[in-house]
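User: Hi! I'm a student and our assignment asks us to look at how structure tokens line up with a sequence. Could you show me two examples?

Assistant: Happy to help. In each example below, the sequence comes first and the structure tokens follow. Example one:
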Amino acid sequence: MRSIQYSSTLLKCYQYSNKPQVNLALSLYRDTQDASYTAAFVLSYLAEALLLIAEECRAAQGNVPLLFAGGVMCNSIIKERLSSLSDIAFAEPRLSAD
């Protein structure tokens, strides 16, 4: 099994602040009063952030395989967006319960 060395570049990609996104989501809901639309926005935004994190990881470590796990990783919006990456896997839903 290959060991991943954590570089400063890799660690920086995990330091995203979610405060601006929370403000955007709150503003969107306040303006539209549409919970479904706001939820789709949040999940799409999260998918883009995860994609950037994965790309940063691979830029620092090479084309390492990636495993996504956890309850939110079962979301179809996130899975669809991340499916553009090569050599990825998602844990089974029964293993991803929070």
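Example two works the same way, sequence first and then tokens:
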Amino acid sequence: MTAAPAMAPDTLLVAAFGTGASHGLYRWRFHGDVWAGNLLFTVSDLCALAAHPTLPVLYGVSGTDAGRVHAWRVSSADDQELGERDSGGALPAHVAID
């Protein structure tokens, strides 16, 4: 097994809750004295994130009526959507990896 790569200390991954083209998964980086963010993936009602402990995978849940679980590989070189599935319940608000 390989450990998940640590995010640089000047980087944050943020879930922007809401609907529309400006909501979803953002990467924010600190440059000098300014934070700059960019949208990586558009996701409706993205409300929670969790990093896999050993794989370079980030999970998130959409708090929609149907509920969705999303998976991405997020790195400085290659951001990729890995897939999404039903969460098994409506309006999920948390995600955990065991």
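Here is something you could point out in your write-up. The beta strands are 11-16, 24-31, 34-42, 46-51, 58-62, 68-73, 80-86.
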